[in-house]
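re: the backbone from monday

yeah here it is again, tokenized this time
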């Protein structure tokens, strides 16, 4: 991507003012010139929907804050604990839970720490399992546990069908990080609202196009979370969803 006249940038033959990058992308500068930036997807992070303005140079997403970069983050350090709390409400008899994370994701430690703290408070035994390959996902479902929780990760998103099928095949109550898993047949999901993140990206894009300086626009942290329950899957697992949970659910799939 090179710069054009008037502070605009070109990608191929297109003239653009704002570039959006989605889902775990890290920026790596290919030259020392602030007029050029190379974009290389690593799929190791949870930061997504990053807005870029022309003439960026840098190597780290958060290190670039205050320059010509801003955006919206998927990172929520308390999510692991909240997922376990939802599972406890759904499966009150559960005593042991597997928490599946991708160890190659540098943000996984935040969710693991949150999940471990919640497990201690809830009197649960938690097994942290790492999976960064399809075979490791298969192996995770061979471990005996009363329930399973899946951390937010782009690797897991790309294998949602495999995860949902394994949970159904092993009859393991499982909580997922995004609605798409539940829509595909998963039992329940609790996590950041992706539609709300897209909306925030649109708001930020509009502000930049109207002349706002991205240097004064901090990276937004997620504030809206959604709980989605699949009643058909709950029935298949012989689970009775508490009325109080149905009342607070953002969506109930029947």
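seq for it, each position gets an aa:
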């Amino acid at each position: 991507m090179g710069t054009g006249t008037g502070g605009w940038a070109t990608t191929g033959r297109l003239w653009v003012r704002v570039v959006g990058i989605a889902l775990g992308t890290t920026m790596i500068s290919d030259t020392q010139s602030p007029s050029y930036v190379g974009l290389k997807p690593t799929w190791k992070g949870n930061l997504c929907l990053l807005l870029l303005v022309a003439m960026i140079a840098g190597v780290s997403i958060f290190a670039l804050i205050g320059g010509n970069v801003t955006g919206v983050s998927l990172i929520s350090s308390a999510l692991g604990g909240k997922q376990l709390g939802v599972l406890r409400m759904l499966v009150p008899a559960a005593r042991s839970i597997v928490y599946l994370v991708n160890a190659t994701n540098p943000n996984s430690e935040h969710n693991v720490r949150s999940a471990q703290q919640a497990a201690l408070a809830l009197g649960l035994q938690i097994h942290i399992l790492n999976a960064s390959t399809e075979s490791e996902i298969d192996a995770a479902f061979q471990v005996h546990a009363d329930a399973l929780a899946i951390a937010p990760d782009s690797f897991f998103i790309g294998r949602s069908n495999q995860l949902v099928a394994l949970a159904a095949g092993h009859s393991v109550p499982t909580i997922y990080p995004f609605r798409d898993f539940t829509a595909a047949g998963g039992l329940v999901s609790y996590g950041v609202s992706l539609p709300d993140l897209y909306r925030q990206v649109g708001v930020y894009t509009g502000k930049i196009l109207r002349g706002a300086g991205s240097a004064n626009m901090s990276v937004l942290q997620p504030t809206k979370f959604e709980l989605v329950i699949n009643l058909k899957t709950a029935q298949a697992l012989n689970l009775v969803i508490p009325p109080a949970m149905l009342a607070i659910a953002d969506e109930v799939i029947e």
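The chain has a mean pLDDT of 76. DSSP finds nine helices and 15 strands in the chain.
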